[in-house]
Write a structure and sequence with these properties.
13 strands; 4-stranded antiparallel beta sheet; 5-stranded mixed beta sheet; 1 helix; mainly beta
C-alpha cells in the first residue's frame, strides 16, 4: 500500500513539474510587446485588448484617482549635484492628482510612476526606473511631489518628479502601477521628449 501511495505521489509531482515547464524545449519565451489577445470560445474570434495611452494634459483615471501630466520640461542644470548618466538627460514631469471617488484616498507614492526604457507585458518584464531625486540639491526641491497625501473627494494636489530619460529617444513612455509591478500597468502615458 505504501509503495502505491509513493508511486502515486511521484506521478503527481512529475505531472506538476511538466505543467510548469517553459515553452520551446526549456528555453524561456521572449516577452511579448503585442497587445494581449483573448479568444472568444463561442465564435472562435480573437479580440485584441487596446491599451489607452494618455498624453500631456489628458486626465487618466484608475482606482478613484485622476492623474494628469500637466507638462514636461528640461530642468535647470544648476539644481543637480551630479550630471545625468552617459546617454541620458534629466526630465522634470509635473503632475496633478485628483480624488474622483466618493471617499478619502491616498495619492500614490513617488515610486509608483515609472519611465519605461523597454516595454514588456508587466512591470517585471520592462526595463524602467521611477523618480530619482537623489541628485537634486536639497534647497531646490520646493514644489516636488512628496506622495501619500490624503485627498478628500474632489480634492487635488500637484507637484513634479525627476527622471532620467535616454537622450537618443524622441518619445517617452511612462507607466503608473496602483499596487504591484508584476501585472500590466494601471495607466500608460506617452508623449514627445522635451
Amino acid at each position: 500500500m505504501k509503495r502505491i501511495a509513493i508511486l502515486f505521489l511521484i506521478l503527481v509531482l512529475l505531472f506538476s513539474l511538466s505543467a510548469c515547464g517553459e515553452k520551446s524545449g526549456g528555453q524561456p519565451s521572449a516577452p511579448s510587446t503585442a497587445p494581449a489577445e483573448a479568444s472568444n470560445a463561442l465564435s472562435g474570434e480573437t479580440e485584441k485588448e487596446e491599451v489607452m495611452v494618455y498624453g500631456i494634459g489628458e486626465a487618466a483615471k484608475a482606482n478613484g484617482l485622476s492623474i494628469t501630466i500637466d507638462k514636461v520640461a528640461s530642468p535647470d542644470p544648476d539644481i543637480f549635484i551630479n550630471k545625468a548618466d552617459d546617454g541620458f538627460a534629466y526630465m522634470q514631469v509635473y503632475y496633478t492628482f485628483k480624488n474622483v471617488s466618493d471617499e478619502t484616498i491616498e495619492t500614490p507614492k513617488r515610486q509608483a510612476i515609472y519611465i519605461v526604457y523597454e516595454e514588456g507585458p508587466t512591470g517585471d518584464d520592462c526595463h524602467m526606473t521611477s523618480d530619482d531625486n537623489s541628485d537634486i540639491l536639497p534647497g531646490k526641491k520646493e514644489d516636488m511631489y512628496r506622495g501619500f497625501i490624503e485627498l478628500a473627494p474632489g480634492e487635488s494636489t500637484s507637484g513634479w518628479l525627476m527622471y532620467q530619460r535616454p537622450s537618443d529617444k524622441s518619445e517617452v513612455t511612462m507607466h503608473y502601477y496602483s499596487k504591484f509591478i508584476n501585472v500590466p500597468p494601471a495607466l500608460v502615458f506617452g508623449f514627445a521628449a522635451p
